[in-house]
Amino acid sequence: MVLDALDFSGPITIISNACASGGNAIGHAWDLIRCGQAERVVAGGYDALGELVFSGFDSLQALSPTVCRPFDARRDGLALGEGAAVVTLETLEGAQRRGAIILGELIGYGTAIDQHHLTQPHPQGSTTLTVMKQACASAGVTPDAIDYINAHGTGTVLNDSSEALAISEWAGRRAATLPVSSTKAGIGHLLGGAGAVEAVVLPDDSARTVAAAGNRV
């Protein structure tokens, strides 16, 4: 096990929550540190492609027969990918004591479950809007302070329209100039690894991150 190989100690928590798994794992790690239950936590997400996974998305008619084009008017589905990302979260004091190079700061987090449908997001993006508001409230910031959104952006008709509505309502007048993109156009949907990989895709070398995770395809 990785725990033994690296001589780590402490509890192991496995979070399996569909597309939000990696993001939820990092958010949970942040909560543990913030509440004083841990000084340092290794967290992340991964997933592997298999015939069953491919068949499942094919049966949902969610796979693009062409290319994944998030938020494009011609979007016709997602592309599946494989990937993983793991981060070490720790207190500022702990990082300074060991002379760590600090790559970023997680300042807020929000999460919720979309109960509208098993595989479809709420058409008005209500859950996405909720977690964005939660994350900003947790961080003590407003939409005006956000410089970039790494969107879920699956390239499916239902998700992208729902997410776009949520971003527009959340950002208000800021929506017209706020940069938004989705890594899924380049690397595909990484499923359980998606949230973790998207959490480390930062617009510059040093960033403050507000994380929001919802259950959505």
Give me the strand/helix succession. Answer: HHEHEHEHEHEHHE
Classify the secondary structure makeup into a structural class. Answer: alpha/beta
Name given to the CATH homologous superfamily = Thiolase/Chalcone synthase
Rounded to the nearest angstrom, the radius of gyration is 17 Å
> Roughly what is the average pLDDT, rounded to an integer?
90
Spans of 5+ residues with little confidence (pLDDT < 50)?
A: none
Number of strands: 6
Intertermini distance = 31 Å
CATH architecture assignment name: 3-Layer(aba) Sandwich
Q: What top-tier CATH class fits best?
A: Alpha Beta
* Global outline: globular
Task: Give me some keywords for this one.
two-stranded antiparallel sheet; two-stranded parallel sheet; Peroxisomal Thiolase, Chain A, domain 1; alpha/beta
Short description:
The chain has helices at 2-5, 21-34, 51-59, 92-97, 126-139, 157-171, 184-187, 194-199; strands spanning 40-47, 83-90, 104-112, 149-150, 180-181, 207-214. It is α/β, with parallel strands linked by helices and 217 residues long. It has one domain (2-214): 3-Layer(aba) Sandwich (Peroxisomal Thiolase, Chain A, domain 1).
